[in-house]
Structures are given as structure tokens and as C-alpha cells.
Specification:
Blueprint lengths: L1 H8 L3 H32 L6 H5 L4 H19 L8 H25 L6 H9 L6 H26 L4 H10 L1 H7 L1 H16 L7 E4 L2 E8 L3 E6 L4 E5 H6 L2 E3 L6 E9 L5 H16 L10 E7 L4 E9 L4 H21 L16
Antiparallel strand pairs: 1-2, 1-5, 2-3, 3-4, 6-8, 7-8
Helix pairs in contact: 2-4, 4-5, 5-7, 12-13
Length: about 350
């Protein structure tokens, strides 16, 4: 405390003025950091006229933080000679400033790697095949991961660590690291398998093992599924890659099937007429695919005459399929009522000997 008091008491008027100028520099950058960030982004986005889009740019917030630090850095360099700051301290400050610059740049570039960014749009435009959202997100996550890794290595280098020694150290501890990272490696490899096979995309309704729901996201480690109970399930990619995946969203049609059991004493003429009426009814329905319709006298059972009604509908989503199925069932019941034919039910005759 006494050293600080002595330092203040020994300050000359020129030094005090320089310190106030340094404070003014810090305040200037602090007050105008938003405007300076806006100008820098505008220089690279000359055609962009919307101020809101410029402020939403991935570099805007990192640049604001950078200009705050830049103000402090310039202020320190300004008072370096007047207050006799040692070279050792300046070296440390330079190192800190470079690290902040690396972090700012890495963060800005990584955050700009989004599906709606100009980079992503150019990448999609240059591809011959259209990429779905899940594949594009996975690619961008890998790119962002690489950017952060490069930034981390640059920071480590700036701190004075020898990367060759670090790599050698990793080699010595490779066995431990491998054992610890086995699950991560499996999940990453599983993610790559899913990425290459493309069994589903974000938004698809899938079934994996005992889980069934809508795919919300796919990360390096896991696939996130919103099940029908509205819970979010994170399934490791290694499990997803090894499991049988049912993608219900890729159904081109849904099957309607029902077995009508008529009473055994139903006249064959009635059976033929009912078959014909049901066939015509199905043909007249827009949702039913005509070439898939089957109405056949299938079996003679203990309970009655079994008629198979089989067809495919174009109603893929479950609610519309249920509506179509319900409507067909109503029509079938109306046909049976019209022909005065009733459905059989399980019966059993018991004979009692006296």
C-alpha cells in the first residue's frame, strides 16, 4: 500500500495528464465499441444495408469484447514510458493481447459457421447433390470443432509450451487416454456412419430400439429424439449406428387390413355381392391406391366365412391414416347393414350328456 501511495505522491503533472489521457482512451473504446464493431463488419459487408443483420453478425459480440481490450492495451502502451512500465510487464501484456485476439478470431469464425451463413450457402450451392439439414449441421459442427482446436493450439503456443513435447507427452499417456476416450471415439465413429448412411434427418419420425419419436438434433456424441411422451432422449451414436432404425417418415404408403368374419349361413351370393361392393367402395376413395386393393374369400373358420380386405392408402401421417381407416370401416358397416348381413362372433356349443 505504501508503494502505491509513494507512486501517487511522486507523479508529475505530465504523468497525471498522460494517465488521464489513457483513461480517456479506455472510455472512448468502451463507449464506442459497438459503433467500431459495426464499422468493421460494414467494411466486409458493403452490400448489407440492414443494421439489424449487421448487429446479428457472428463477429459483432467478439469484436465488442476485442475493442474493450484494445482500449486498455493502447492505454497501457501510451503510459508505458511516462510511468516507466518494465519490459517484462509489457511482454506479458503483449502475450495476453495476442491470446485475446486469437480467442476473438476463433470464436467469430466458429460462430459464423451456421446453416444460414454465407459460407454454408456457398457450400450447398457448389454441391451437386442437395444436403439435408442434419448432414449440413454435422459438417458445420466438425468445422467448428477444428477451428476451436486450432485456436487452442495457437493459445498453447503463445503461452510458451512446446507442442512437440505436448504431443510426446500424449504419446506416453496414450494408453490411459485411449481407454478414457473409447466411448467418445465410438460415438464419433457412429456419428460418421450415420452421416454417411443418412438413415434419417432432423425432423424425421424414427424408431430406434425401444425409443420412438422425432429427431431434434444430432451431435458428435448422441442423437436427440423427442419421444411421443414429450421427453427428450439422448441416444449415443454408437448405439444408434448398431441398431435397426425404422424411419416412419419415409413411408410412401400405409397398409389397411381387416378380416371380416361373416356368419356361416350367409348365402354365397351375398358373400360375392359384399365383396364386390367393398371393392367398388375402395376404388372410389381418393386416398386408396387402386392397384393394391384385395377383397378375397380368405378362409372358412369355426366361426364363419372369413373375408380379407387389404389395401394401401396414400395417407402417410398417423392422424390422417386413422381418419381414412375410420371412414372405410364406417362404409364397410353400411354395406353389411344394407345387405342384412351380420358379422359372426366367437361361439362354442357345449353338449351335456344325461
Amino acid at each position: 500500500m505504501s508503494k502505491i501511495t509513494n507512486f501517487i505522491n511522486n507523479l508529475t503533472i505530465e504523468q497525471i495528464v498522460d494517465i488521464w489521457i489513457a483513461i480517456a482512451i479506455i472510455l472512448f473504446f468502451q463507449i464506442f465499441k459497438s459503433g467500431l464493431s459495426y464499422i468493421v463488419i460494414k467494411l466486409f459487408k458493403v452490400k448489407e444495408k440492414n443494421p439489424k443483420k449487421i448487429k446479428n453478425n457472428a463477429f459483432f459480440i467478439p469484436l465488442k469484447a476485442f475493442f474493450s481490450v484494445l482500449g486498455v492495451y493502447i492505454a497501457i502502451l501510451f503510459v508505458r514510458e511516462p510511468i516507466n512500465i518494465s519490459q517484462e510487464v509489457i511482454n506479458i501484456i503483449n502475450k495476453i493481447f495476442k491470446i485475446i485476439l486469437i480467442i476473438t478470431t476463433s470464436t467469430g469464425i466458429a460462430k459464423s459457421m451456421t446453416p444460414k451463413s454465407s459460407f454454408a450457402k456457398k457450400f450447398i450451392k457448389n454441391k451437386e447433390k442437395e444436403l439435408d439439414d442434419s448432414v449440413l449441421n454435422f459438417i458445420l459442427k466438425i468445422v467448428r470443432g477444428i477451428i476451436y482446436v486450432i485456436g487452442a493450439f495457437l493459445v498453447i503456443t503463445e503461452l510458451g509450451y512446446n507442442l512437440n513435447g505436448l504431443v510426446a507427452g500424449l504419446g506416453l499417456g496414450g494408453v490411459i487416454f485411449t481407454l478414457a476416450a473409447q466411448d467418445t471415439a465410438k460415438n464419433l465413429f457412429g456419428g460418421l456412419v450415420i452421416f454417411l448412411d443418412k438413415p434419417f434427418k432432423v425432423g424425421d419420425w424414427i424408431e430406434v430400439g425401444t425409443y420412438e419419436g422425432t429427431v431434434e438434433d444430432m451431435t458428435f456424441r448422441s442423437t436427440r429424439i423427442r419421444v411421443f411422451e414429450n421427453a427428450l432422449v439422448n441416444i449415443p451414436n454408437s448405439i444408434v449406428a448398431e441398431s435397426s432404425i425404422i424411419n416412419w417418415s419415409r413411408m410412401e404408403k400405409r397398409r389397411y387390413k381387416i378380416n371380416l368374419v361373416l356368419e356361416l349361413d350367409t348365402p354365397l351370393e351375398k358373400v360375392e355381392k359384399i365383396k364386390s361392393e367393398i371393392h367398388k367402395m375402395l376404388e372410389n376413395r381418393d386416398a386408396v391406391m387402386d392397384d393394391t386393393i384385395l377383397v378375397k374369400f380368405d378362409e372358412i373358420t369355426d366361426n364363419g366365412i372369413d373375408i380379407l380386405v387389404y389395401a394401401y392408402t396414400e395417407c402417410v401421417d398417423y392422424p390422417s391414416f386413422l381418419s381414412a381407416k375410420e371412414n372405410i370401416n364406417y362404409k364397410i358397416m353400411q354395406i353389411l347393414k344394407k345387405e342384412n348381413v351380420e358379422l359372426a362372433y366367437n361361439t362354442q356349443t357345449i353338449q351335456i350328456k344325461k
